[in-house]
Amino acid sequence: MIVVEAVSKWYGDLAVLSGCTTAVARGEVVVVCGPSGSGKSTLLKCVNALEPFQQGQITVDGTRVKDRATNLPRLRARVGMVFQHFELFPHLSVTDNLTLAQRKVLGRSGEEARRRGLDLLARVGLSAHAEKFPGQLSGGQQQRVAIARALAMDPVVMLFDEPTSALDPEMVGEVLDVMVELARDGMTMMVVTHEMGFARKVADRVVFMDGGEIVEDAAKDAFFSRPRSERAQQFLSKILAH
Amino acid sequence: MLASLDLSVVAASLPYLFGEGMVFTLTLTALAASGGLVLGTGLALVRLSGVPGLTHAAKLYVELMRALPLVLVIFWFYFLMPYLGAWATGAASPIQVGPFASALITFTLFEAAYFAEIMRAGIQSVPKGQSAAARALGMSYAQTMRLVVLPQAFRNMLPLLLTQTIVLFQDTSLVYVLSLTDFLGAASKVAQRDGRLVEMYLFAALVYFAVCFAASLLVRRLQARIAVVR
User: Fold this and answer.
1) If you placed Cys at B21, which of A76, B31, B159, B186 could pair as Cys (CB 3.0 to 4.6 Å)?
2) How many domains does chain B have?
3) What region holds the ABC transmembrane type-1 domain (chain B) (predicted)?
């Protein structure tokens, strides 16, 4: 579904990504982890071309991301993305947040978009909040609406960029529950997160990044029980110690 | 001295002052403000586009307009426009532009420079993540701006936009240099005709104050209401 081949990105002399190669198969859940500044969010944003990269190639469902002929808006419409800071549109109601891109990008009718949006709102357990504005919701609720908004586009893959990092601890669970359910329904997911509990529960593979490189790319059990690299061992011992 | 004021002059001229003068002032203000906002938003987008030549051109325009006194721009445009028009269309004689059209175009172009700066600040006040989210949903640049960024920028800047419009409302009195009759011009005519300068100018000042004060109050209330959004 996603193939990342030798992707490199730099700002002047500063290398942000160096020769990253990995892949996400259909229906697979891949967790990308690593210390801050390791380039994991940047790599994720390269997948839907929110960040440009200088070298290498990324292919999403057969479409090359770095290709002048590629219609990027069309590609992005098929790739759902969930942001650390939710990024719901504050001037629109929850319903309008869910329907805007369906109508304007996919060309769905207002009625159809509304039905699809409200279905997904029910799925994330927030039907009662359809007419509210984002500012009236808690962080966890906003993030669940953001997930529903991305799903409303019927994406072939979902990208999550630290979806729980900006949340108060007591709200992390409700968002992870939605994500776990999504993974169990067979959604292809690429998730940048520090939530190792989530990784243990639903990930198929774990990609560990440090200094802009993919240091380890292993099946979940192999990664947690016997990480090969010293850096991954250190990282795991630090975040699993608590 | 106050005993010698003759307010019947004011009362008698009310239909003329408001029916013609104030209508003119409000029409010019409304048209120039809307035109200036549209053009200014365009300039702000161009300036933020990052396209080297365009960005500098927009910046130069804004800086130039903001450096010139409004009266100078009004004169300059009024006397130069007919020749520019003739040159552009290849006509043999200067194109006739009526004083009202000339004033409207001038005010629109002038206000656009100020509105451009306000909208630029407004666009920059919208977090980058908002346009990233819009693009991630598959929206084009135009859709991202029109549906997500500009509505928020406009909301954030509404108080400043209205304040600028109040300034414009006062500035429209400068059309007297083109012999157009706005509210102040109308008051001035009556004052000269009847030899009642004190009464008429006192009344005109009072009306300007009342309108601007009411508008400022409105802006303050709007500010309080809009501040809740984010």
Assistant:
1) B186
2) 1
3) 22-219
Q: Do B229 and A79 touch (CB under 8 A)?
A: no
Here the tokens at position A115 are 């039905």
CA angle B151/B156/B158 to nearest 5° reads 90
CB pairs under 8 A between A and B: 68
Burial of A168 (0-12, 13-18, 19+ CB in 10 A): exposed
> What CATH number does residue B157 fall under?
1.10.3720.10
* Contact flag B143-A76 (C-beta cutoff 8 Å): no
**Counting every residue, how long is chain B?**
230
Instruction: Give the domain range for residue B100.
Output: 2-229
Top residue of A75, A82, A91, A151 to mutate, by most chain B CBs within 10 Å, is A91
ipTM of the complex: 0.93
User: How far is A102 from chain B, CA to nearest CA, in Å?
Assistant: 9
List chain A residues with pLDDT less than 70: 241-242
B134: chain A residues, CB-CB within 8 Å:
89, 101
Q: Dihedral through CA A147, CA A148, CA A150, CA A154, nearest 10?
A: 130
DSSP conformation letters of A86-101 = ----TTS-HHHHHHHH
Report the pLDDT value the prediction gives residue B227, as an integer from 0 to 100.
Answer: 60
Segment A228-236 long-range contacts (CB within 8 Å, at least 24 positions apart):
A232/A208, A235/A33, A235/A34, A235/A35, A235/A208, A235/A210, A236/A196
Question: Hey, CA dihedral for B200, B202, B204, B207, is it positive or negative?
Answer: negative
**At which residue do the structure tokens 């004083």 appear?**
B99
Average pLDDT of adjacent 10-residue blocks, chain B of 230 residues: 76 91 96 97 94 93 94 90 83 83 94 97 96 97 96 92 94 92 93 91 95 92 69
